[in-house]
């Protein structure tokens, strides 16, 4: 599918205002590509010239039209390794006016690495016999760059996938809530909607090491950038969408618990943290017990809590509510800090190689709910490093573009326009499921936020569903 120029659209050379090729150009290029694939020497030269011409046209158009960079999100399939398929795919991406692609390289518990060269904790996407040495990611990067496309590696982060969750030697790595449940068990009883999303304890060193080893393999392919997604905890359903008590938090893995206890500054503080984690609340007896047990300590202390004067002579019934509230806030901050720290740790080798990094997030996933609750995802993107590009997924549905623009504007209040790169969901030329067309979304976004210069569209499969299907199921001729 190619978006055809609509009446009244300004033309830039042979491209429309969205820098998309005319259908005549698309058809001519595809015919030459097929002739070149059959070994026709003249067609090979013509095809090479066409790729260069279309790349130059697109770059020129993007210098004149908003936005300067336009990307799409792509999942590759094993069948893309068949002769000519990647060429056809990348041509179609260019035809639609995209200058960048975000290729899924780690998702759903599998990694886009050659099976024979895969030394990670996850199976390879490509499992077919005879393809053990084929490097789909490297081939895609080469095919994209041949056309002037920048190819970024798009990676799940704290969601390690079902295959990882089945490993007996990794059970201690998984995130757990106050009921001792993994995120898979939580989903299976209706807490969230996908039991195959396996989130890990971000404080666990094994999780960090496994991820870093896999990331190093990806970086050997030298992508133009790395985008980190799923930098959060699961999104709960119904009442589970709100974290309102400590047992709702995914901080009951051994590593996370130990790290929280280490935030205590003295013995009183450590014992009260332990009781709060275990029971979910404090009793007056807890306070009286630690007063007797540690008489030389004036106050229970932990990080962020500094009390100069002792209040141990104040009745426990008076002290308990404030201490309990402080411990709740400490626990939430600890859960959030685990997410931030994990992102900082795994992004470091990317920065060391001077490869750009980006973070993908939901603009509303960091919101408080009510007086003491929080969105269960605890995705406090406002604390993500501004050295990374921010990719807010502005996917809200309200029947028009207003809520989409509002989400982007919310993010812009925390970061500069040249560092915010909104991700929009939709299809060219029509609205779907009460979601406005990409044209409508792009127009509204340009009017409201003209200083943004990079936008992405989720997903390529939405724009070209038939070609995505035949690629997925190897139905190509």
Counted beta strands: 12
H-E order: HHEHEEHEHHHEEHHHHEEEEHEHEHH
Uncertain segments of ≥5 residues (pLDDT<50)?
Answer: 1-12
Q: End-to-end span in angstroms?
A: 18 Å
Number of helical regions? 15
How much β-strand is present in the residues?
5-15%
Short description:
This protein has 477 residues and is of the alpha/beta class. The chain contains 15 helices and twelve strands. It has helices at 23-37, 41-64, 85-95, 136-146, 162-165, 183-188, 205-219, 254-261, 267-279, 284-293, 316-352, 402-412, 438-448, 460-463, 465-472, and strands at 69-74, 100-107, 110-111, 150-156, 225-229, 242-243, 357-361, 368-369, 373-375, 389-392, 423-425, 454-458.
Structural features, described:
The chain is an alpha/beta fold. Helices cover 39% and strands 11% of the residues. It contains 15 helices and 12 strands. The protein has helices at 23-37, 41-64, 85-95, 136-146, 162-165, 183-188, 205-219, 254-261, 267-279, 284-293, 316-352, 402-412, 438-448, 460-463, 465-472, and strands at 69-74, 100-107, 110-111, 150-156, 225-229, 242-243, 357-361, 368-369, 373-375, 389-392, 423-425, 454-458. Strands 1, 2, 3, 4, 5, 7, 10, 11 and 12 form a 9-stranded mixed beta sheet that branches. The protein has a 3-stranded antiparallel beta sheet with strand order 6-9-8, with no helix packed on it. A hairpin with a 3-residue loop joins strand 8 and strand 9. Residues 1-12 have low confidence and may be disordered.
């Amino acid at each position: 599918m190619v978006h055809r120029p609509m009446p009244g659209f300004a033309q830039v050379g042979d491209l429309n205002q969205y820098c998309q090729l005319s259908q005549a150009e698309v058809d001519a290029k595809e015919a030459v590509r097929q002739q070149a694939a059959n070994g026709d020497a003249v067609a090979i030269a013509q095809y090479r010239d066409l790729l260069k011409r279309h790349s130059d046209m697109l770059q020129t158009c993007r210098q004149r039209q908003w936005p300067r960079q336009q990307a799409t999100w792509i999942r590759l399939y094993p069948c893309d390794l068949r002769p000519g398929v990647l060429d056809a795919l990348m041509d179609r991406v260019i035809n639609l006016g995209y200058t960048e692609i975000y290729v899924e390289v780690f998702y759903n518990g599998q990694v886009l690495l050659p099976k024979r060269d895969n030394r990670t904790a996850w199976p390879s996407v490509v499992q077919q016999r005879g393809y053990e040495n084929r490097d789909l990611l490297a081939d895609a990067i080469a095919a994209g760059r041949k056309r002037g496309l920048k190819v970024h590696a798009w990676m799940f982060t704290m969601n390690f996938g079902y295959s990882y969750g089945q490993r007996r030697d990794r059970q201690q790595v998984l995130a757990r809530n106050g009921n001792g449940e993994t995120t898979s068990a939580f989903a299976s009883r209706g807490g969230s909607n996908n039991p195959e999303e396996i989130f890990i304890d971000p404080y666990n060193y094994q999780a960090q090491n496994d991820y870093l080893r896999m990331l190093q393999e990806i970086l050997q392919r030298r992508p133009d950038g790395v985008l980190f997604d799923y930098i959060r905890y699961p999104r709960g359903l119904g009442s589970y969408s709100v974290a309102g008590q400590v047992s709702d938090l995914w901080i009951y893995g051994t590593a996370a618990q130990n790290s929280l206890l280490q935030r205590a500054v003295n013995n009183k503080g450590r014992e009260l943290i332990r009781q709060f984690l275990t029971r979910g609340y404090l009793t007056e007896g807890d306070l009286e017990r630690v007063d007797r047990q540690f008489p030389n300590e004036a106050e229970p202390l932990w990080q962020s809590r500094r009390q100069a004067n002792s209040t141990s002579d104040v009745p426990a019934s008076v002290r308990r509510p404030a201490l309990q509230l402080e411990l709740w806030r400490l626990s939430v901050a600890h859960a959030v800090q685990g997410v931030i720290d994990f992102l900082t740790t795994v992004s470091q080798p990317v920065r060391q190689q001077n490869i750009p990094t980006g973070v993908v997030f939901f603009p509303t996933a960091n919101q408080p709910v009510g007086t003491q609750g929080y969105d269960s995802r605890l995705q406090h993107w406002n604390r993500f490093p501004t050295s990374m590009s921010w990719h807010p997924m502005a996917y809200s549905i309200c029947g028009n573009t207003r809520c989409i623009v509002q989400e982007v504007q919310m993010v812009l209040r925390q970061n500069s326009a040249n560092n915010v790169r909104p991700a929009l969901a939709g299809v060219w030329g029509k609205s779907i499921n009460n979601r406005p067309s990409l044209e409508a979304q792009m127009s509204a976004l340009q009017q409201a936020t003209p200083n943004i210069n990079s936008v992405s569209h989720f997903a390529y499969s939405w724009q070209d569903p038939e070609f995505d299907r035949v690629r997925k199921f190897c139905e190509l001729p």
